[in-house]
Amino acid sequence: MKDLSNYRKSYEKSELLENQIPEDPINLFHKWFYEAEDLNAAEEVNAMTVTTIGLDGFPKARVVLLKKFNEEGFIFYTNYNSEKGKAILNNPNVCLSFFWPTVERQIIIKGIAEKTAENISDNYFASRPDGSKLGAIVSPQSEVIPNREFLEDNLKQLEKEWEGKEILRPAHWGGFLVRPVEVEFWQGRPNRLHDRIRYQLADNYEWKIERLSP
Fold it and tell me: Which residues belong to any copy of the Pyridoxamine 5'-phosphate oxidase N-terminal domain (predicted)?
């Protein structure tokens, strides 16, 4: 067994103080997101971990790409019949997390997911390259398949079927909007005394802001 106890790093790049933050977590997310992008904090700054509670009762986390965010919440796209999609439709309570090591920052979002309107899913699907569109159609996501050739053969068949035609979004594929109820911002600090600021949505739909001990 490899001993990792000596893997340590000192976090010293920034700070997160109450007198420097907005009243709304979306505004702070916007600021941090584009700072991370400007500083090349990750190869894909919009990569986030989505954690769901599966039909088997276990939590499961996987990385997907954030495609849009606004005052309503955070949007990503998936196959509704996938393990992830079924889990969300059964239990819409999800967690999103972003980690940008270059800027020593993490954001954890608890929220409630719902399907996006069909026109939103249609518009995004239409913007995708044809290969990605066909990939969404050909893949029975999360299902057991016999081999790699199963996918490649089906893709070749679909390419022939859709040649010269507009590729339409399948009904089982679309977006989820995650409406946040809690957002925690983590900024690495020296001596493991990290800054943690939590926004919680109160009953009056205003955000309660608290500092958490690291």
Answer: 43-158
Q: Residue 172 annotated as binding?
A: no
User: Is 0.70 topped by the overall pTM?
Assistant: yes
Report pLDDT digits (tens) over 35-52: 999 998 888 999 999 999
Superfamily of domain 25-211 in the CATH hierarchy: Electron Transport, Fmn-binding Protein; Chain A (2.30.110.10)
Domain range annotation of the chain: 25-211
Name the residues annotated as catalytic. 192
Query: 93-132: per-residue pLDDT in tens?
Result: 999 999 999 999 999 999 999 999 999 999 999 999 999 9
User: Are 148 and 79 spatial neighbours (Cβ–Cβ below 8 Å)?
Assistant: no
178 is in an annotated binding site: no
